[in-house]
Amino acid sequence: MTRFSRQLCLLLCATLPVACSQPSAPPPQTPEVGVLRIEPRPATIEAEYVAQLDASNTVEIRPRVGGLLEQQVAVEGETVEKGQLLFVIDRQPYIVELEQAKAALAQARAGLQQAERDLARVQPLSELDAVSQQELDSVTARESAGRAAVQAAQAAVRSAELNLEYTRVTSPVDGVVGRAQFRVGGLVTAYQSLLTTVYDTNPMYVNFSISERRMLELQEQFGARPPQSRYDDDNAFKLMLSDGSVYPHPAHLNLVDAAVDRETGTLPIRLEVANPDGLLRAGQFARVVVVVDRIDAALLVPQRAVQELQGRTSLWVLREDGTVDRRDVRMGARVGGDWIVEEGLQAGETIVVDGLQRLRPGIAVSPQKLEPAGVGDGR
For the Multidrug resistance protein MdtA-like C-terminal permuted SH3 domain, which residue ranges apply (predicted)? Predict the structure, then answer.
Protein backbone atom coordinates (compact mmCIF):
# COMPACT_ATOMS: atom_id res chain seq x y z
CA MET A 1 0.00 0.00 0.00
CA THR A 2 1.32 3.33 -0.93
CA ARG A 3 1.86 6.13 1.51
CA PHE A 4 -1.05 8.15 0.04
CA SER A 5 -3.48 5.23 0.36
CA ARG A 6 -2.58 4.72 4.02
CA GLN A 7 -3.27 8.43 4.80
CA LEU A 8 -6.64 8.33 3.03
CA CYS A 9 -7.69 5.27 5.02
CA LEU A 10 -6.68 6.87 8.30
CA LEU A 11 -8.66 10.02 7.43
CA LEU A 12 -11.83 8.05 6.58
CA CYS A 13 -11.60 6.03 9.76
CA ALA A 14 -11.24 9.20 11.85
CA THR A 15 -14.20 11.05 10.36
CA LEU A 16 -16.72 8.23 9.85
CA PRO A 17 -17.64 7.75 13.54
CA VAL A 18 -18.15 11.46 13.99
CA ALA A 19 -20.53 11.68 11.01
CA CYS A 20 -22.53 8.72 12.15
CA SER A 21 -22.83 10.04 15.70
CA GLN A 22 -24.36 13.58 14.84
CA PRO A 23 -27.82 14.14 16.57
CA SER A 24 -31.04 14.91 14.56
CA ALA A 25 -32.43 18.49 14.28
CA PRO A 26 -34.42 19.63 17.39
CA PRO A 27 -38.21 20.00 17.06
CA PRO A 28 -39.52 23.60 16.44
CA GLN A 29 -40.18 25.65 19.57
CA THR A 30 -43.70 26.64 20.58
CA PRO A 31 -44.03 30.41 19.82
CA GLU A 32 -44.68 32.70 22.75
CA VAL A 33 -47.59 35.11 22.24
CA GLY A 34 -49.22 37.77 24.35
CA VAL A 35 -52.88 36.99 25.01
CA LEU A 36 -55.74 38.87 26.61
CA ARG A 37 -59.03 37.65 28.03
CA ILE A 38 -61.84 39.86 26.75
CA GLU A 39 -64.46 40.98 29.24
CA PRO A 40 -67.23 43.56 28.72
CA ARG A 41 -66.44 47.04 29.99
CA PRO A 42 -67.90 50.53 29.55
CA ALA A 43 -66.86 52.48 26.47
CA THR A 44 -67.39 56.03 25.31
CA ILE A 45 -67.46 56.47 21.54
CA GLU A 46 -66.13 59.81 20.36
CA ALA A 47 -65.88 61.58 17.02
CA GLU A 48 -63.39 64.32 16.19
CA TYR A 49 -63.98 67.36 13.99
CA VAL A 50 -61.88 70.30 12.87
CA ALA A 51 -63.34 73.55 14.21
CA GLN A 52 -62.65 77.27 13.99
CA LEU A 53 -63.21 79.76 16.77
CA ASP A 54 -65.14 82.96 16.36
CA ALA A 55 -66.03 85.82 18.67
CA SER A 56 -69.58 85.68 19.98
CA ASN A 57 -70.03 89.26 18.79
CA THR A 58 -67.89 91.04 16.20
CA VAL A 59 -68.61 94.76 15.84
CA GLU A 60 -67.20 96.92 13.06
CA ILE A 61 -66.50 100.40 14.36
CA ARG A 62 -67.48 103.01 11.77
CA PRO A 63 -67.83 106.76 12.40
CA ARG A 64 -71.25 108.40 12.28
CA VAL A 65 -69.72 111.70 11.20
CA GLY A 66 -66.89 112.47 8.80
CA GLY A 67 -63.75 114.49 9.35
CA LEU A 68 -60.10 114.25 10.28
CA LEU A 69 -59.15 111.65 12.87
CA GLU A 70 -57.82 113.71 15.74
CA GLN A 71 -56.99 111.11 18.37
CA GLN A 72 -56.70 107.33 18.76
CA VAL A 73 -57.39 106.57 22.41
CA ALA A 74 -57.67 102.79 22.62
CA VAL A 75 -54.56 100.65 22.12
CA GLU A 76 -54.78 97.89 19.54
CA GLY A 77 -55.30 94.53 21.21
CA GLU A 78 -56.48 96.16 24.43
CA THR A 79 -59.53 94.96 26.33
CA VAL A 80 -62.20 97.66 26.45
CA GLU A 81 -65.55 98.03 28.14
CA LYS A 82 -68.86 99.11 26.67
CA GLY A 83 -68.92 102.91 26.29
CA GLN A 84 -65.14 103.31 26.47
CA LEU A 85 -63.65 105.98 24.17
CA LEU A 86 -61.82 104.61 21.12
CA PHE A 87 -61.31 107.53 18.69
CA VAL A 88 -61.89 111.27 18.52
CA ILE A 89 -62.77 113.05 15.26
CA ASP A 90 -62.05 116.76 14.79
CA ARG A 91 -64.78 118.49 16.82
CA GLN A 92 -64.41 122.12 15.73
CA PRO A 93 -66.66 122.01 12.64
CA TYR A 94 -69.42 120.41 14.67
CA ILE A 95 -69.04 122.89 17.51
CA VAL A 96 -69.58 125.69 14.98
CA GLU A 97 -72.53 123.83 13.50
CA LEU A 98 -74.11 123.55 16.94
CA GLU A 99 -73.65 127.27 17.62
CA GLN A 100 -75.31 128.10 14.30
CA ALA A 101 -78.21 125.81 15.11
CA LYS A 102 -78.67 127.43 18.52
CA ALA A 103 -78.64 130.89 16.93
CA ALA A 104 -81.26 129.79 14.41
CA LEU A 105 -83.37 128.45 17.28
CA ALA A 106 -83.14 131.76 19.12
CA GLN A 107 -84.19 133.60 15.97
CA ALA A 108 -87.14 131.26 15.47
CA ARG A 109 -88.26 131.73 19.05
CA ALA A 110 -88.08 135.52 18.66
CA GLY A 111 -90.23 135.34 15.55
CA LEU A 112 -92.72 133.09 17.37
CA GLN A 113 -92.94 135.50 20.27
CA GLN A 114 -93.69 138.39 17.89
CA ALA A 115 -96.35 136.32 16.12
CA GLU A 116 -97.92 135.39 19.45
CA ARG A 117 -98.06 139.08 20.50
CA ASP A 118 -99.65 140.06 17.16
CA LEU A 119 -102.23 137.33 17.55
CA ALA A 120 -102.97 138.41 21.11
CA ARG A 121 -103.72 141.97 19.90
CA VAL A 122 -105.75 140.97 16.86
CA GLN A 123 -108.02 138.37 18.45
CA PRO A 124 -109.90 140.84 20.77
CA LEU A 125 -110.31 143.28 17.92
CA SER A 126 -111.66 140.52 15.73
CA GLU A 127 -114.34 139.78 18.27
CA LEU A 128 -115.38 143.44 18.01
CA ASP A 129 -115.25 143.32 14.21
CA ALA A 130 -112.47 145.94 14.37
CA VAL A 131 -110.25 143.94 12.01
CA SER A 132 -111.04 141.92 8.98
CA GLN A 133 -111.14 138.15 8.93
CA GLN A 134 -108.33 138.16 6.40
CA GLU A 135 -106.02 139.99 8.77
CA LEU A 136 -106.89 137.58 11.58
CA ASP A 137 -106.15 134.62 9.36
CA SER A 138 -102.81 136.12 8.36
CA VAL A 139 -101.73 136.69 11.96
CA THR A 140 -102.84 133.18 12.96
CA ALA A 141 -100.85 131.69 10.07
CA ARG A 142 -97.74 133.63 11.10
CA GLU A 143 -98.09 132.31 14.64
CA SER A 144 -98.42 128.68 13.40
CA ALA A 145 -95.46 129.13 11.06
CA GLY A 146 -93.39 130.57 13.89
CA ARG A 147 -94.24 127.61 16.10
CA ALA A 148 -93.19 125.20 13.32
CA ALA A 149 -89.96 127.14 12.77
CA VAL A 150 -89.11 126.76 16.45
CA GLN A 151 -89.67 122.99 16.27
CA ALA A 152 -87.47 122.74 13.19
CA ALA A 153 -84.75 124.79 14.85
CA GLN A 154 -84.93 122.60 17.97
CA ALA A 155 -84.50 119.52 15.77
CA ALA A 156 -81.51 121.13 14.08
CA VAL A 157 -79.95 121.83 17.46
CA ARG A 158 -80.48 118.23 18.52
CA SER A 159 -78.95 117.00 15.28
CA ALA A 160 -75.92 119.24 15.79
CA GLU A 161 -75.56 118.00 19.37
CA LEU A 162 -75.65 114.38 18.16
CA ASN A 163 -73.04 115.08 15.51
CA LEU A 164 -70.82 116.64 18.13
CA GLU A 165 -71.31 113.58 20.37
CA TYR A 166 -70.53 111.28 17.45
CA THR A 167 -67.07 112.81 17.13
CA ARG A 168 -66.26 110.68 20.19
CA VAL A 169 -66.31 107.10 18.90
CA THR A 170 -66.95 104.63 21.72
CA SER A 171 -67.15 100.86 21.96
CA PRO A 172 -70.71 99.48 21.85
CA VAL A 173 -69.69 96.21 23.57
CA ASP A 174 -67.14 94.75 25.94
CA GLY A 175 -64.32 93.13 24.01
CA VAL A 176 -60.87 93.34 22.49
CA VAL A 177 -59.89 96.09 20.03
CA GLY A 178 -58.51 94.89 16.72
CA ARG A 179 -56.04 96.59 14.41
CA ALA A 180 -56.76 100.26 13.63
CA GLN A 181 -57.41 100.90 9.94
CA PHE A 182 -56.84 104.68 10.17
CA ARG A 183 -54.12 106.69 11.84
CA VAL A 184 -54.29 110.16 13.36
CA GLY A 185 -54.77 112.74 10.61
CA GLY A 186 -56.62 110.38 8.29
CA LEU A 187 -59.84 111.53 6.66
CA VAL A 188 -62.78 109.32 7.58
CA THR A 189 -66.20 109.19 5.94
CA ALA A 190 -69.41 108.86 7.92
CA TYR A 191 -70.85 105.30 7.98
CA GLN A 192 -68.27 104.08 5.43
CA SER A 193 -64.74 104.14 6.83
CA LEU A 194 -63.86 101.14 9.00
CA LEU A 195 -61.87 102.42 11.96
CA THR A 196 -61.35 99.08 13.74
CA THR A 197 -63.19 95.98 14.94
CA VAL A 198 -64.10 95.06 18.50
CA TYR A 199 -64.32 91.36 19.30
CA ASP A 200 -66.48 90.15 22.16
CA THR A 201 -64.38 87.13 23.14
CA ASN A 202 -66.21 85.95 26.24
CA PRO A 203 -67.90 83.67 25.47
CA MET A 204 -66.44 82.33 22.23
CA TYR A 205 -68.18 80.37 19.46
CA VAL A 206 -66.77 77.10 18.15
CA ASN A 207 -67.93 76.34 14.61
CA PHE A 208 -67.67 72.94 12.94
CA SER A 209 -69.70 70.78 10.58
CA ILE A 210 -70.78 67.15 10.43
CA SER A 211 -71.31 65.19 7.25
CA GLU A 212 -74.77 64.61 5.87
CA ARG A 213 -74.27 60.88 6.41
CA ARG A 214 -73.48 61.42 10.08
CA MET A 215 -76.50 63.68 10.40
CA LEU A 216 -78.73 60.91 8.99
CA GLU A 217 -77.22 58.40 11.42
CA LEU A 218 -78.01 60.67 14.35
CA GLN A 219 -81.55 61.23 13.10
CA GLU A 220 -82.05 57.48 12.78
CA GLN A 221 -80.74 56.97 16.30
CA PHE A 222 -82.38 59.88 18.11
CA GLY A 223 -85.08 61.18 15.78
CA ALA A 224 -85.24 64.38 13.76
CA ARG A 225 -83.96 66.43 16.72
CA PRO A 226 -81.51 64.82 19.17
CA PRO A 227 -82.60 65.31 22.80
CA GLN A 228 -81.10 68.47 24.26
CA SER A 229 -80.29 66.63 27.49
CA ARG A 230 -77.85 64.54 25.49
CA TYR A 231 -75.64 67.63 25.08
CA ASP A 232 -76.22 69.24 28.47
CA ASP A 233 -73.46 67.16 30.01
CA ASP A 234 -70.24 69.12 30.50
CA ASN A 235 -68.35 66.16 29.03
CA ALA A 236 -70.39 65.94 25.82
CA PHE A 237 -67.94 68.19 23.96
CA LYS A 238 -64.20 68.49 24.48
CA LEU A 239 -62.13 71.26 22.89
CA MET A 240 -58.57 70.32 21.88
CA LEU A 241 -56.15 73.15 21.09
CA SER A 242 -53.48 73.06 18.40
CA ASP A 243 -50.76 72.11 20.90
CA GLY A 244 -52.72 69.01 21.91
CA SER A 245 -53.88 70.38 25.25
CA VAL A 246 -57.47 70.11 26.43
CA TYR A 247 -59.22 73.44 26.98
CA PRO A 248 -60.25 73.52 30.66
CA HIS A 249 -63.72 75.06 30.26
CA PRO A 250 -66.63 72.92 29.02
CA ALA A 251 -68.33 73.67 25.71
CA HIS A 252 -72.11 73.61 25.27
CA LEU A 253 -74.28 73.24 22.22
CA ASN A 254 -75.43 76.63 20.98
CA LEU A 255 -76.83 76.06 17.50
CA VAL A 256 -77.62 73.30 15.03
CA ASP A 257 -78.25 74.95 11.68
CA ALA A 258 -81.63 74.44 10.04
CA ALA A 259 -80.17 73.68 6.60
CA VAL A 260 -77.34 71.66 5.10
CA ASP A 261 -74.66 73.71 3.35
CA ARG A 262 -75.26 73.26 -0.38
CA GLU A 263 -71.61 73.70 -1.31
CA THR A 264 -70.07 71.29 1.21
CA GLY A 265 -72.98 68.97 1.97
CA THR A 266 -72.39 69.36 5.71
CA LEU A 267 -74.53 70.54 8.60
CA PRO A 268 -73.04 73.54 10.51
CA ILE A 269 -72.98 73.24 14.30
CA ARG A 270 -71.95 75.88 16.83
CA LEU A 271 -70.76 75.49 20.40
CA GLU A 272 -70.35 78.14 23.07
CA VAL A 273 -67.42 78.13 25.49
CA ALA A 274 -66.34 80.51 28.23
CA ASN A 275 -63.12 82.47 27.67
CA PRO A 276 -62.48 84.39 30.90
CA ASP A 277 -58.68 84.37 30.52
CA GLY A 278 -58.63 85.42 26.87
CA LEU A 279 -56.78 82.26 25.82
CA LEU A 280 -59.00 81.76 22.77
CA ARG A 281 -58.96 84.18 19.82
CA ALA A 282 -61.14 84.64 16.79
CA GLY A 283 -59.97 82.69 13.75
CA GLN A 284 -58.07 80.13 15.84
CA PHE A 285 -58.32 76.47 14.79
CA ALA A 286 -59.07 73.66 17.21
CA ARG A 287 -60.49 70.14 17.31
CA VAL A 288 -63.84 69.24 18.80
CA VAL A 289 -64.20 65.80 20.34
CA VAL A 290 -67.87 64.86 20.51
CA VAL A 291 -69.30 62.06 22.62
CA VAL A 292 -71.28 60.05 20.08
CA ASP A 293 -72.47 57.20 22.28
CA ARG A 294 -71.83 55.46 25.60
CA ILE A 295 -71.91 51.64 25.79
CA ASP A 296 -72.18 49.95 29.17
CA ALA A 297 -70.78 46.56 28.09
CA ALA A 298 -68.53 46.70 25.04
CA LEU A 299 -66.03 44.10 23.85
CA LEU A 300 -62.87 46.14 23.38
CA VAL A 301 -59.74 44.68 21.80
CA PRO A 302 -56.43 46.42 21.11
CA GLN A 303 -56.24 47.73 17.58
CA ARG A 304 -52.90 45.99 17.07
CA ALA A 305 -54.63 42.62 17.58
CA VAL A 306 -56.91 43.16 14.56
CA GLN A 307 -55.74 42.08 11.12
CA GLU A 308 -57.24 43.76 8.05
CA LEU A 309 -56.99 42.30 4.58
CA GLN A 310 -59.07 43.17 1.52
CA GLY A 311 -61.89 44.66 3.57
CA ARG A 312 -62.02 41.72 6.02
CA THR A 313 -61.07 41.97 9.69
CA SER A 314 -60.00 39.01 11.82
CA LEU A 315 -58.65 38.07 15.24
CA TRP A 316 -56.52 35.17 16.42
CA VAL A 317 -58.50 33.35 19.15
CA LEU A 318 -56.85 31.01 21.67
CA ARG A 319 -58.60 27.67 22.06
CA GLU A 320 -58.82 25.67 25.29
CA ASP A 321 -56.30 23.11 23.96
CA GLY A 322 -53.64 25.83 23.54
CA THR A 323 -53.93 26.18 19.77
CA VAL A 324 -55.01 29.25 17.87
CA ASP A 325 -57.56 29.87 15.17
CA ARG A 326 -58.17 32.87 12.93
CA ARG A 327 -61.73 34.19 13.13
CA ASP A 328 -63.48 36.79 11.01
CA VAL A 329 -65.11 39.53 13.07
CA ARG A 330 -67.09 42.67 12.41
CA MET A 331 -65.61 45.76 14.02
CA GLY A 332 -67.37 48.87 15.24
CA ALA A 333 -66.06 52.21 16.45
CA ARG A 334 -62.51 52.89 17.58
CA VAL A 335 -62.06 54.06 21.17
CA GLY A 336 -58.60 55.43 21.78
CA GLY A 337 -56.19 52.57 21.10
CA ASP A 338 -58.97 49.98 21.22
CA TRP A 339 -61.57 48.72 18.78
CA ILE A 340 -65.09 47.55 19.56
CA VAL A 341 -66.00 44.07 18.29
CA GLU A 342 -69.64 43.98 17.22
CA GLU A 343 -69.86 40.42 15.90
CA GLY A 344 -67.70 37.28 15.95
CA LEU A 345 -66.35 37.35 19.51
CA GLN A 346 -67.91 36.31 22.80
CA ALA A 347 -67.25 37.66 26.26
CA GLY A 348 -64.71 35.55 28.16
CA GLU A 349 -62.77 34.43 25.06
CA THR A 350 -59.03 34.98 24.83
CA ILE A 351 -57.36 36.60 21.84
CA VAL A 352 -53.75 36.91 20.74
CA VAL A 353 -52.45 40.46 20.90
CA ASP A 354 -48.67 40.16 20.40
CA GLY A 355 -46.68 37.79 18.19
CA LEU A 356 -49.18 37.56 15.32
CA GLN A 357 -46.47 37.20 12.67
CA ARG A 358 -45.57 33.64 13.77
CA LEU A 359 -49.10 32.28 13.83
CA ARG A 360 -50.88 29.90 11.50
CA PRO A 361 -54.19 28.11 12.07
CA GLY A 362 -54.06 25.14 14.43
CA ILE A 363 -50.56 25.57 15.87
CA ALA A 364 -49.91 25.36 19.58
CA VAL A 365 -48.64 28.47 21.31
CA SER A 366 -47.18 29.44 24.65
CA PRO A 367 -49.57 32.15 25.91
CA GLN A 368 -48.27 34.97 28.03
CA LYS A 369 -51.12 36.76 29.80
CA LEU A 370 -51.31 40.55 29.34
CA GLU A 371 -52.75 42.90 31.91
CA PRO A 372 -55.89 44.84 30.85
CA ALA A 373 -54.17 48.06 31.93
CA GLY A 374 -51.82 47.71 28.95
CA VAL A 375 -54.64 47.40 26.46
CA GLY A 376 -54.91 50.03 23.78
CA ASP A 377 -51.66 51.81 24.51
CA GLY A 378 -50.54 51.36 20.93
CA ARG A 379 -47.34 49.44 21.71
Answer: 298-358
